[in-house]
Each structure stands twice: as C-alpha cells, then as structure tokens.
Amino acid sequence: MRVNSYLAAVMLWGASLILLTSGCEESVSPILGTEEAFSFYGYFNPRADTQAVRVYSIDGILNPEGHQKLNAIVTSRNKRTGETIVWRDSTVVFRNETIGHVFYALFRPEHNTEYSFQAEGTDGRISLADLKMPADGATDLVSIVSTRSNVLVELKWNGVPRILQTAVTYKVRVPFPDGTDTTTVRVRILSGRLQELGSESWKVVIIPSSDIGAIYTRLGLRPGISPILLDDIEVSAFVVSADWVSPTGAFDSELLVQPGVFDNVTGGFGFIGSGYTDRFVFELTDKQKQDAGFAVK
Amino acid sequence: MIRRDVSLKFWVFLAVWLGLLIVSPSLSNAQQSLIRGTVVALSDGESLQGVNVALYQQNVLKLGSVSGADGVYAIPSIPVGVYELRATFVGFMTYSDTLRIGTADRIIINITLEVSETELGEVVVEGEDQGGAARVLAGQTTITPADIELIPSPDISGDLVNYLTTLPGVVTLGDRGGQLFIRGGEPWQNLVLLDGMWVYQPFHILGFFSSFPTEILKSVDVYAGGYTSQYGGRISSVIDVKSRNGDKKSYAGSGSVTPFVSGISFEGPIARDIVSFLISYRTSVMDKGASRIIDDELPFRFDDLFVKTHAFLSKNSQLSVSLLKTHDRGSIFEGNDLEPAENVEWKNASAGARYLVFPRAFPVMAEFLVSGSRLKSSIGSTGQSPSRSSLASANTNINITHYNSFGEVRWGVFARSLKLESNLLGQFQNTYHRLEYLTEVGIYIEPELKDFYGWDLRGGLRIHSFPSKDSGFLEPRIRAIKLREKDEFTIALGSFHQEIVGLTDRRDASGVFTAWTSSPNDNNVPEALHAILGYRRTFGGRFDVSVEVYAKKLNNLFIPEWTSYPRFTTSLQPADGNVIGSDVRMEYKREKFTGLITYGLSSVEYTAQQKSLGLWYGEDELRFRPAHDRRHQLNAVTAFDFGSFDLNIRWQFGSGLPFSRALGFDGFMVVDGNTDVFSDPGSRRVIYERPFNGVLPTYHRLDVTLQKKFSFPNGVSLSGLVGVINAYDRNNLFYLDVFTLRRVDQLPFVPTFGLKMDFE
Q: Which of A82, A238, A241, B291 has the fewest CB atoms within 10 Å, counting from its CB?
C-alpha cells in the first residue's frame, strides 16, 4: 500500500466520523417535572384558635428563592357548613437560616367535622387534602393499683378514634439542700402504655414507680439521698383522626421520606392530620406516693 | 463457600493429596530428561517472554515450550536422543544448539537472542501467553508495550490505562476519577498486581494515566474473568503487571514533557549482565499546562515513582526488588449549593521482593514473594475533617511449578496480614472509627492436562481462610483451550470470593473514595461465579477475529441505600447482580498498519434488597441497572507507520449510562404529633423516579496523535508529538448534578504536544 493510500484512508476516517457525529449533540434533563403542585405538612387542631400548615411548592430546582411569596391561594372549607376560609402566607426564617412558607388561619375547627384544605397555583394546578376532626372524648381514671414498690395507673379515653402518643408530666418539688424550702419542677416523660379497646375506646397505663427513675435522672439527683415530693400527675394524650397512621407503625423519617409512602394529599405530597392534646390531672395518696418511691411530708 | 468446617484434619488430608498428585507423575518421569533456562536479549539483557523454544530431530518438531514472563522456559519429559534446540522470536535471530540428551538429565541452558536486522519466520509453538488485541483466551488478554503504543494518548509515552479502555467490557465513567469497571464488576473487585505486589488504587485521578507507563512495562495479563487459582481475593478481574528489569548492558534513559505530565526514566547495569536497576518518575503538570490551554481549571495532581533492581544470582535463580509510590489528589465533586467541593486524595505504597529458582535436582520452578502494600485515602471539604481510610497488607506467596509429561502442575501457599482502618464520620452504616486486623491463609493447586481429546485443560482449586473471622472458602475453577490450525475454542468457569470489600458511594460518577473493610456481613461475603465461552479465528495470518460470551453471577454485594434526602452519605443495603455480555475483537496487522476494532455488548442488573422496598415500591426486591451498566461500547484504533512518522487514531463510543432522574423537589417533615411548623425547618427532598431509570447521553470521542522520531549520534533520539484529544469537541458528559441541574463535561478539544528525549 502506498503512502497516498494511507492518507486517503485517514481522510476517509475523519470524514466518516465527522459526518457520523456532527449534529448529534445530545442534551439531557435530569428533572422530568410532575403534575403534583404542592406538599403540605401539619395538622388541624380543634382546640386551638390558630391553624397552621407548612406548604412547599414542588419545583424543578432544589433551592428556590425562599423570600418570594408562594404563588398559591390556600383555603380550607368546612364541608358541613360550606364555610371557606382563605389562609395567609407567612415567610418564616428558621434557626438553620432556611426559609419556609407557613400558611395560617384564625379559626377553631369543629370536632367530628370534615374539612378540606387546598392550595391552587397560578397555573391552575390544585393540591387537596381531606381531613376529619376527631371527636371530643372523655377520660376516666379506671384504677390505681398500689403495692410495695409498684404503682400502676389505668386510664381510659372514650369516644376518640385514635390516640397517637401519650406523655406524663409529674409536678414535683425538690427540697433545697438546707431543707428550708422546695423548688417545684414539672418533668415530662413520653411514656404510657397504649392499648386500643375497640369502639373508639383506648386504655392508657402509666407506672409512676418506673418513671421515678427517669425523673431522678432528669433532675440529676440520687435516689435515697435527695427526696422528691410529688404534687400531681398530668397524663396527656394526643387524640387524632383515624387515618393518622404510619404505614410502618413508627414515624421513621428515613422510611417516610419516600414520596407517596405517608401521604393524604391529592395532586401533591405530604400529610395533614387532625388532632388535639387532651389532658387529665390526678393525685396519688401518700401511700401510693411512697409505694412509687416519692417522698411524703 | 465453606465456613467453620475447615478443620486441621481437612488441611492435612489436602496436603497429603496434593503431595501425591504432584510427586507421583514426577517419579514416573524420573527417567526422562528436562531442559530449563532463561531467555534474554543480547542488547540489554532483558528477559524475553513468548520465545518459542523447541527441540527438533531431522527438522521435525518433537517438543516445545514458550518462555514465560521471566523469560523462563522448560521442556520436560525428553526421551534419550540427539536434538537440535532452537529458540525463535520475532525480531531476533534464531538461536540453535545441538544437544545429546541422556537418561534423567537435568539441563539448564540460558539462551541469549540477538536482534535481527531482517525479520525471520517464526516457528509457532502455541501457548497461553500470546499478545495481540484480538488474542483473548478465556478472558485473558496479554498486553505488551508495543500494543499500548498504538493508542493515542496526551502523553508522548504510552500508558497501560489507555489500552485497557480499548478492551471491550472495560467501562470507565469518564476521563477523570480513574475507575475501571471490568465486565460488570466494580473497581474494588479488581485485583491489580505489579511484580506480585498488590496495588490497591493504581489508576490516576485523570483517566488517561495510571501507575504503569510503558517505560516500566514488560507485559500485562488482564483476566476479565475466569482467572486461574493462582489469583484470589477479588471477584471481578485480575490485572497482573510485570515490569522490565532494566538494561544490564548499558545506561539508558528518557525525559519527556507534555501539557499533562512530565516524566523521567533511567536504567542501567549495577553489575554488567548480572544486576540492573530501573527508575521511573512522573508528575502531572496540568495546572501549568493543559488547564491554560483549555482555559479551564483541571484540579487534579498526581505523581508516581517506580524503582526496581533485578539480579541473576546464578544460572538458575533470579532476585528482584520493586517499589512503587503514587499520590493523587484533586476535586472530583466540584460542589453545589448544598455542599462544598470535595477533595479526594489517595496514596499507594508497595514494596516487594521476588526470588525465582529452578533447582537442578528437581523438575520444578519455585517463586518466593514477599511484599507489603499500603493505601491511604481521604475525602472531605476544605476546612473540614476528611473521612479517611487506610489499608495495609503484608503478603507472602510461594508458587511452585512442576513440569510433567502431561503438562504443568502449579501449586502454592500464601499468607496475608491486613490492617484496615477507617474514620468515616458517620458515612456508611453510620461507621465512625473502625480498626481491624485480619489474616488470610490459603493454598491452591492448578494441574494442567495437555491434549485431552484435543483440549488443554487447566483445573484449579483454591482454598483460603480468615481464621480470625472463622471463615473459609473453597473455589473450584477450570480453563480449557482447544487450539487448531486456524482457530481456537476456549472455556473458563470459576468460583470467587472477596472478604475485604470496598465501600463506595456509587450513585454517580463522583464516587471515587473507597473505604476498605472486611465484609459487613460475616456470613455472606461477596462472591461470584464466572462463565466464559470464546472462539477465535485467524484469517491469512494477518486478520484475527475473536468472540467471547460471558456471564457473571454476583451475590452478597453492598450498595448504598436509596433516600429522597438530597445527600451523598448513606447506609448500605444488600444486593445481588447478574452480568451477561459479549466481546468482539477484530485486529488487522500489516508491516506498517494496525487496525483494531473492539465491540462490547453488556448487561448488568442488580437486585437490591433494601428493607423499605416493599413499602416504597410494593416489591421486596428491586431490579435496576447500576450506574456503570454501559450496554454498547465500541473502539476503533488505527496505527499507521509512514516511516518518517507515526499516525495513531482512536475513536471511542459508549452508549449512555443509567442515572436516577427526579420529578422535582419539595420539602419533607415528619408529621408525628410533635410537629411545630413554625419552628421545624423540615428538609428539602428529591422526588425521584424509580432508581436509575434514566439514561445519560452517549459518549464518543476521537483522539489523534502524530509522532516523529529524530535519531542523533551517540544513541540519542528526540521524539516529538502533536495531537488532539476530543478532536471534534464533543461535549461528553462526565457528571450531572441532579440537585443543581449543573452538568460537568469531560475534557473538551485539547491540543497536545510533547517532546521526549531518549539516550542509551
């Protein structure tokens, strides 16, 4: 093969490739876009006069300009009366310097009533969530079983669809080191054993004789050396609508972060619940306090 | 895999069985003779691989052998008689000697070949160690420096990695990062050896360069799968690099400068014909060169240093000592609005000694290897504590080759101590600090059976154990080759395990940092089954075509868990993988022209087993294409020798790689009853489509180089190089930041040039 043949081959090479590859520049878009418009987070509280819900717009960029007004009309509607309320936008700067839109409205939802919450964008896309307020339940102190070193209190909430969590607040007094006076402290412990009894009835069991260990730890005191006096016990239950249930049984953010896993928003993502905190306060007798490990005057 | 059952009785039984297997044929051949020796070049004393050494009677070929990487050959089982010993090699004059072979002779004949001015016809004695791009034998490709020089490179000296990327089935994610995915395997599943030393991360941060410039290379065996029992500890591939010994006759050296890298090499005799040395050093100059040419920052730096000394201690023994040090640093992930740029750095250090002897009294060759290797790597943002990982190992190997009438029997024992330390700041299974000491011991045997119904069979059994982890592995393997006049068939099957694994964030191209640890799951370490079926045919002696189909079954892998949080650190989930593919290679060679086309068709599928998959997708397992699943890959290379100059052209094409697309972004809060929307900032969230459902654009690039060599008196020569990388300025995507929608492209059109001076 002569040199000219080689050169011809090279030129053929180049020409073929240029023809082959020119004009085939490809672009790629990693963002497909979606019809979903907004994501909602929060809950309606029938025992509060102000309702608030965090609203995110679903964007094509990770960090939209937070100071801008959210281009949405956010409303809620009482499905029984038809009353519609327009919510107001507030731009919140959080501790971590991020900015979010929290919409709020001044009204108190009615127990046992259905509401809808929606955001409509300027492009006409709507995200909508339906929710039902839980009933206003009643609480009974069923029993207090007290034996030496063991005190068990059983309470019952009636007429509520679901209790999401309970907490116990112990109002205690701690004597000064010189014994001249006492300091009153409220210690809140997320405790309480919860059991659904059926027909919107829930049993809550607390064990003060177990909780006292956590109280000593919280207060940095040592049992047997520093006495703790108990005034009363407040049991709070977060009563929610029946649909406020995590699909995993727990509220693990790593699992629930996947869109669509824990959602009740149509045309968007997120979850809006309805719930309120119901409280019940009672006192123990001196014997029951001693059995639970508290000091008695 | 066997676990907790590898008892002392078993080892004793195995040792006895191996002894009988090895010794019995040796005894039966005791009356027959054996010739062994080393073949070296007269010009520089370098040992020659691939030399045909054969015995003739009345010009009829009786027995033959091919010299190995150390130039060592052996012809066993020679009946009594008078023979003509001939050694032939392309480019060298034929060596000839007449021998009178008696009974049970043990003869050592070291052969020196002289360079021929006119090329002689070659007598072919087929062996496994044959070079050439299309000459693949059951996944094994042997690469020589001459092969590498065919590939256009931004450096005037060739580099192994440029040739590796022309092989079908070898996928790179771009021209930076230095990550090679071989037939579906991941980089941490590749075993890289240099003179028997483990090198853990040898490919430089800029993808054109590795720790192996052609100046130091003698030959490279790349096993894309189905490798022999001599190799272990990795489940994907083996790259076994053998370095040159250095000139034993005279001093020689070179120095080169290009916009990418500058380097020097120097070699020569310490004791003429007996002891030699070789030194090579390269350092990147991209910040002063290439980045100014393209007017863009190339935030990568690397250096590598290789030192070797080699000695013929006697007629029948050799000793070499090698040292390799490398240092890479740079910024692969250039940062986004959420996270600053990440700086990655790694350092390799490997040192080893290798002693080779063929005792006069026994028909064996013994190799003793002692080496130590270390890798230190880190990744982190400027001004913050980086995540660190280090791996240090001490390796001892004894490899014995027995020469028998039916073929060779290789066996060996090995022991390896490892120290693994990582400080990952919570990355990967929330690991902060982890320190492990491990010891691996094992044994292997590779009996060879020649001409078994026309097939050459090399079986293999490798047994290795980590006593401290109470784990052991049994790995049967076999390679079979059927050579005919113009074509050959090959088969390879094997089982492989990997106890020491690399943890990498493999969700995108920026996953360069690898943390080494023992398998996160003691009961299920990563394992693989390989199957390869190949066919090769030669047309007219100039045109070779080979086709291989392969499958790999990968079990017990570890991949990052998916999350919708926009972040790069994560926990791991178990996964299995299936790889199937086919490689086609065509090579045409004439005196002044070489043309090479390779095509790889591959499919890699992982099955993820993250616990939340049922909740997220309604399926307990999710099948997906991982980020390195390149379906089609084509390479076309031509090399023209115009006499006065060389012209090399390479065109690469790769179909798009999978990536995870997003539908959009919103925020996320846990609504659990404690939510306060006025104080809880929530988190930004990515609304992903199904993982890896998108495909990035195709990749293609044309590189052209023109090289001319000027020779001067006194052995000095000057080579000049001009060329272009990415000749038609294709915007090849390297990295697509889903979070900021920013794309980072690979190198644009880059003119390159260089000068290299050689002297000898």
A: A82
